[in-house]
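User: Teach me something about this protein's shape.
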Amino acid sequence: MPAGDVTAQARESAAFRELTEPYHRELQVHCYRMLGSFQDAEDALQETLLAAWQGFAGFQGRASLRTWLYRIATNRCLNARRTASRRPAKAWDIPQVTRPSRPGWARSSGWSPFRTLCWKMRRLVLKRATS
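Assistant: First, the predicted structure itself:
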């Protein structure tokens, strides 16, 4: 690759980073809310930015850059959720720790562990408030 091409690509990369940097945190939060896992949100954010970088030439500007990035992030998160639902559950592999049991209503609902925890906390607060 000629030196001019490398320099041009570095400039494009820096420009893309400068355009997307203000949205990283809110996109990460968006992905976290959709996936319920910080690690999965990080992965989805990286996939979002890679897809945006690869498809930036096709960005026509009919919507704002923020809207375009959110659309990509939402699609990546939905794909991750679909993929996760098709994968078999991992075996419990934490030594010397008993696997927590989930109540029946949480098992059948398909709720994320975060949502289940929020529901338990809500029930605990209400129970303490009424006691």
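Now, about its shape. The first helix runs from residue 3 to 20. Helices lie at 3-20, 24-35, 38-55, 65-86, 104-109, 113-130. If you'd like, I can walk through any region in more detail.
User: That's plenty for now, thanks!
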